[in-house]
Amino acid sequence: MERYHYGQLRFWEMLPGLVVWGTFVLALTLSFLAPLWVIIFIIVFDLLWLYRVIYFNLFVVIAWMTYRKTIKIDWKQKLIGIPGAEKKIHLVFLPTYKEGYEIIETTLTSLQHNSFPVDRMMIVLGGEEGDRAHFESVAKQAQEKFGGIFKKLIITIHPKGLPNEMSGKGSNLNWMGHRVEEVLQAEFPELNDEDIIVSAFDVDTIAHEHYFSYLTYLFCTVKDPTQSSYQPIALFSNNIWTASAPVRIGAFGTTFWLFGELARSERLWTFSSHSMSWKMLRDVRFWQKDIVSEDSRIFMQAFLHYHGEYRVTPMFLPVSMDAVTGKTYMESLVALYKQMRRWAWGVEHLPYLIDGFRRDVSIPRVKKFQYIFNHLEGMFTWATAPVIMFLLGWLPLWVAKGQTNAIIQAAPFTLEQLMRLAMIGILLSASMSLTLLPRRPGTVRPHAWITMLLQWALLPVTFIVFGSMPAIDAQTRLMLGKYLGFDVTKKQRK
Fold this sequence. Notes:
By secondary structure, the protein is of the alpha/beta class. It contains 17 helices and 8 strands.
């Protein structure tokens, strides 16, 4: 039997959605039949959520402090004398679809000016057959300007309509990987797989100036470096000053979530732009080409291939990408919703995990349980917590209004106080977000930072509209077998 593909394990595809909708139906029904018990549940739930907010923010602060220390280090200088560092080659994958040359040029310029020697960097620019004319034009410009700067600039075009593929980033990366393998074998046979470090970046990714020096340092100093991925801090801030307020909250919310995960590396999966070893990619035969969430799936491919002996090493330097935008305010909001839904489609990993763990008896049961529980619990909380706290939590209070039970009488005050305490997390996020902002463009008014603070008042709304709703949407689609395709994120720079 082949590895799991959509539709083969319907129970596990349906389970997350069934649990979410079962929770909502049960909460609605019991709000009318047994409002007291629901009120008690909501109070306990909010207490647990408050604990979780405090616990989470503790790790966010730890990661933020580590980040502030890390960005002050000259990692190029730290590399001097590190055994094996002089042999390392960086291979940067930049899949692209319909992006303008100005975005590609900005990314390649940032790679050129990184502190790592450019003569040990290879860049792979991968276009799509459906955008051939435009891509060939921008690729020609890139080749003319940057072709002689890096060790190698490789251009690939992913054909349309290949069997067993889904149009999207994963299938493009898979094609790029196989083409690069051919180039390396033909032109650079002297290179060892263990000395090549791969970074799979969105094409708008601007890496910190010491990113590749820091990555090389980690690769040369951690245990079993080829059996680890390397996850940087993802900032969606290239155009943050001109993005709409809900988009900015979504962007910073994603960054703070990643901060919390980076401080607990045992929970960490790969996300968005990140790095890994070329040896691992060849071992698993590159990215899976028929899924949406290739950035996190590649970690699970490696985890299963190495029988659980694979991990993610946190990187406390940032890579910066564009926040989603559209031509109009409403287009931006629609694009944000679709981006969040695509990320929430990571729920597709559950049946893949179940299938892989069932096949591999050598992975400890405790480790299997941890991964399945963390994945299920994370997806469930993403979909349900905002709805329970801000909507369903107040329904039994309305139903039980007028009753003299002491718990019912005290519940509104108790819930209000818990919400106020939870606001501490919002204030902390608002304060830290200012330290992550890039330099303000001259076209933006000097007092715009005030808006950057006030926008956090929208968090309860964005928490539901761009948090719960996309997650419910994704899990419901998987439950019904209406599989999501890859939606290219709209990004524009003003």
